[in-house]
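Support case: zinc ion complex. Customer-provided input:
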Amino acid sequence: MDHEYDLVVRGGLLAGPMEVFEAEIGVKDGVIAAIGRGLRRGREEVDAKGLIVMPGGIDPHCHIEELAQDGSVHEESFASGTAAALAGGTTSIICFLPQWKGHSIAASAPGYEARASAALADYSFHQIITDPTPTVLREEIPALVARGIRSLKVFLTYDPLKLTDGEFLDVLTAARRNGALVTVHCENYDAIGWRMRALLAAGLTDPLQHAWARPPVVEREATHRAIALAELVDQPLQIFHVSCEEAAAEIARARARGVKVWGETCPQYLTLSTEDLSRPGFEGAKFVCSPALRAKDENERVWRQIQAGTLDIVSSDHCGYSYASAKRAPGGGYGQGEASQRPDGTPAFNAIPNGVPGIETRMAVLFSEGVSKGRIDLPTFVRLSSFNAAQLFGLGGRKGTLSPGADADLVLWNPDAEGVIANDALHHAIDYTPWEGLPVKGSPVVTIRRGEIAVREGEVLARPGSGRFLARGPYALAMPRGLPPDGFDAAAYA
Ligand code: URP
Ligand code: ZN
Ligand code: ZN
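Agent response - structure generated as follows:
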């Protein structure tokens, strides 16, 4: 029998970025072919009765299998990390191509892109720029953009990664010339170093002091500076992992002036706090990430920035550092200053690799704490977990949407399922989750990637290597406003 559709999803409540309605979805050749009622039978039928049908998640900020110049590597592989992503309802990720200082982009982390071909989810890259030489700016960035890698990541802190303001201006200018978006980690390197040295001199070395070394003012200052420099160049900018209200306020103020700047936050800044960093012994190391976790009452303030629309993407910032291994290797991964040790041999706060795992739990924590607890509605959840990332990173119309012609990336979600997060049940390669024991209401039941059932009831069915590289073309959000200060476009001469 001839079927009009390869797959039909019936009986669910569809949730898009603006709307919620009952309809069926017909899929043909991996794309959404029809949305409506009374669709003819598909070759395969999925019963979504009692479930919400949403676009598959997009996690536009995750660190997978990244190899640093010091030889440390994220323990999460493309196969394990993307299996975990799919199991959590995420069908596309954007991770990071490294550049090592003193090396060209081409010579940094050889083979990294090839390793990504083991992915099960669709993937793209942000290119990290740590050493913006004339060759990088004039030859390598245009070549990347021509290959569909249309976003750059820069750091204003971390020893091996940070850029000076002058270097940052050069990257902003090159991005503008090539129609790429710039994403930025905002913390003041010198201010952190100054606080860090004083803390170590005072003999204060616990994981909690990671937060004391980089209080909100350090993030707010760098956020303000990054936006000001982007405004000077007239280059659109995404502020990564906003942890506090005062940094978000800088974004809101700039937007009110018409600046093209967007803000991302992560589940850790909505749910975790310095109380977790203060757990006994070395356990606080599980919660060391940058920007640092804040005081407990800051969680609700960050939610308010989401509700106000200032923070419009929730990514995981997934990092593959296990508690038993990488978190105990002084100086490995993202850190700052000399790698000193505590008397028990564990690293001092400044030498603990920065970052927490969360690629699989991102959507469940956001749904449970957001939708189930009444902080956000379903369309807002869709915007935060997929739609806005698609728009901002040049995947609009193809990902993050329930519309005919878009890739059939869907997650079928049970809003009433109650459970407790446990690392044993996760698919990532990391030995802990910061949300161990968190009760959650709402969880993914089936994940469909380009029309194929990739996960059903926690069982990953997609094969390693079935993910596809997502090349990204030119798009409006990454274009300048055409309003340089005084009408003089310095970037044209730089
Ligand atoms: O602590 C974090 N966020 N580690 C990952 C690197 C980064 O800053 O994004
Ligand atoms: Zn960062
Ligand atoms: Zn990150």
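The chain has a mean pLDDT of 96.

Case will auto-close in a few days if no follow-up is received.
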